[in-house]
Amino acid sequence: MKKILPLLVFLVVGVFLFLSLNSDPNKLPSPLVGKKFPIIEGTDFYSNETVKLNDLMDNNLALVNVWASWCVTCRKEHQVIMNVAKNTNLKLIGINYKDTKSDGMEYLKVMGNPFDEIVFDPNGEIGMELGVYATPETFLISGEGLIIHKHIGEITKEIWNENFLPLINVSES
Fold first, then answer.
1. Is 109 left (phi over 0), alpha (psi -120 to 50) or beta?
2. Residues 6+ away with beta carbon under 8 Å from 126
3. pLDDT band per the 50, 70, 90 thresholds, residue 146
4. pTM, 2 dp
5. DSSP-assigned states of every residue in 37-101
6. Does the bond joining 29 to the residue before it have cis omega, within 30 degrees of 0?
7. Residues 6+ apart with CB under 8 A from 100
8. Sheet of 62-67: strands edge to edge?
9. 95 close to 65: Cβ distance less than 8 angstroms
């Protein structure tokens, strides 16, 4: 029994490690989905005035994208976000996360600015309230202020078409 017990423990630990390697962090459930977007105050990126994110949505279907200039994946998804801005009536709100204002401005100057509003979150406090642990993260918010979808990681054209568009079409009808 003394020789079998360590083997069993090793096998159990091995199975858990193997299963965790095959897990997809993009499919982690968010406790915020289906709930009201939290009432969060932040600083407007350009004017430095205090704003409430909820007020920025204006009771419209909105996309809240958490991004940073230092985020390689944000750069990869940026063209998709630009296309969303061009081709939808969504209110696009950006949260510039754990960044410097000068780096964020340079990023937008080079990459283009798809956002209707941007909130500056240099210390990650807003991100913490939203449960953000990696950039980019994107929230789809209904006109009633409910979080109807959260996506962790890059939004590709395929992800947009498969995960976001059906929810937008249902919400708009």
1. alpha
2. 40, 42, 53, 95, 97, 119
3. very high
4. 0.81
5. PP--EEEETTT--EEEHHHHHTTS-EEEEEE-TT-HHHHHHHHHHHHHHHH--PEEEEEEES--H
6. no
7. 69, 122
8. 50-52, 41-44, 117-121, 91-97, 62-67, 137-141, 147-152
9. yes
